[in-house]
Every structure is written in structure tokens, then in C-alpha cells.
Design a protein that fits this description.
The chain is of the alpha/beta class. It has a single domain, classed as Sandwich (Immunoglobulin-like). Helices cover about 25% and strands about 35% of the residues. It is built from four helices and eleven strands, in the order αβββββββββαβααβ. The chain has helices spanning about 1-15, 140-150, 160-180, 185-190, and strands at about 25, 40-45, 55-60, 65-70, 75-80, 85-90, 95-105, 110-115, 120-125, 150-155, 190-195. It has a six-stranded mixed beta sheet with strand order 1-10-5-2-8-9, with helices on one face. A five-stranded mixed beta sheet has the order 4-3-6-7-11. Strand 6 and strand 7 (about 95-105) form a beta hairpin. It is globular and about 40 Å long.
Length: about 200
């Protein structure tokens, strides 16, 4: 019986890791490349040990169509290039949550993906380019987040995972996006990455 309990303890985290721990690979270089002149780079970081065994999938959404950015395990970061303009991003762990963005080409932006006690999911939260807000690039925490996270990039399993899970994720998106839209303008502003947040 004791062996069975030990087995269950080790088995459950493996289930919960999800694609965040299986479809991403360590980037050849740990330096985040500057954004190109026609694209914006958004660096998503995850550092909290809270719910660390749960995998988080990241998506860019366009009118309900999901583009998989990749999985984000605890202690990792991913640098994603996208076209400039208004965007919506979704993070999914045990629930979905969203961040809006308005980004400029040639700029690099930062986002902390943190546990959200209200939903049981993970909230992609803008890191401000000035000293406003709890999360901004001028804090010592930000420097630690950059230094202590490993840069990863999508591996060969990304497309396979999306094909197998896209319909389920689209249903999750539809449900949670309606909930997100009920937030107040102030709450949505807190979850919006602004042009001036770029570096």
C-alpha cells in the first residue's frame, strides 16, 4: 500500500505537467533576440512555485481562432514574435484567462504568467515599461525573473498537440472569453499590454 501511495504521488504531477513540460525544448541561445523591424516580441515568463506541477498552454487568439505559442512550465520563458497591433492572448492551465495587447513593431514586451486564485487558472499579466503598477521592469523582481527563467522554444510535438486538442481548446476559449468580457474597464485595462510598455 505504501508503494502504491508513493507511485500516485509521483504519477499525479506527471499528469498535471501537460504540454508545458513535453513539447518545448531549451533554446540554443538564452539571449532574447531584439524584435525585428516588422514584428513585436512578447516574452512570457513563469516563475511562481504555486501550482508549479500544472502545465500552461499559451495562445494568440484572432476572432476565436487559436494559434498555439507553446507550453510554459514553471521556471521557463518563451519569446514570441507577432505582428504589430491589437491582440488577445490566452493562457490555459486548469482554467483559461486572457490578456489584451496593443504592440508596436520593433519593441520587446514582457508578461508574467501568474497563478490566479480567482479562477484556478493562470493570468497573463503585463509588465509595465514605466514604474506604474505592481509589475514593472524597474523592480528587482523583474531582473530576477529574467535571470532565473530558462528560454524555451516550440519542439516537434507542438503541431501534433494542437491538432489533437484544438477543438477542446476552442470550446474552452469560447466559454472563458465570455467571462473575461464581463470584467470592468478598469480590470481589463490592468490586463492590457500597452504600446509604451515596449522596450
Amino acid at each position: 500500500m505504501k508503494k502504491l501511495k508513493i507511485g500516485i504521488i509521483f504519477f499525479i504531477p506527471l499528469i498535471l505537467i501537460g504540454c508545458g513540460g513535453t513539447m518545448m525544448v531549451k533554446a540554443p541561445s538564452q539571449q532574447v533576440k531584439p524584435a525585428s523591424s516588422d514584428k513585436a516580441t512578447i516574452v512570457f515568463m513563469r516563475t511562481s512555485f504555486v501550482a508549479g506541477a500544472i502545465g500552461v498552454e499559451l495562445f494568440e487568439t484572432t476572432n476565436g481562432d487559436l494559434k498555439l505559442i507553446g507550453g510554459l512550465a514553471m521556471g521557463k520563458k518563451v519569446a514570441y514574435q507577432t505582428t504589430p497591433g491589437e491582440k488577445v492572448f490566452m493562457a490555459y492551465g486548469t482554467a483559461a484567462d486572457f490578456m489584451k495587447a496593443n504592440v508596436i513593431a520593433g519593441k520587446t514586451y514582457y508578461v508574467i504568467v501568474r497563478p490566479n486564485w480567482g479562477t484556478g487558472g493562470f493570468a497573463p499579466t503585463p509588465i509595465r515599461g514605466d514604474k506604474s503598477g505592481e509589475y514593472n521592469i524597474h523592480t528587482s523582481d523583474f531582473k530576477d525573473w529574467l535571470a532565473d527563467t530558462e528560454l524555451v522554444e516550440p519542439g516537434p510535438e507542438v503541431e501534433t498537440w494542437l491538432k489533437e486538442n484544438k477543438q477542446r481548446m476552442e470550446e474552452i476559449y469560447a466559454d472563458y472569453w465570455q467571462r473575461f468580457k464581463t470584467k470592468t474597464p478598469e480590470q481589463i485595462a490592468e490586463r492590457t499590454l500597452n504600446p509604451q510598455d515596449g522596450q
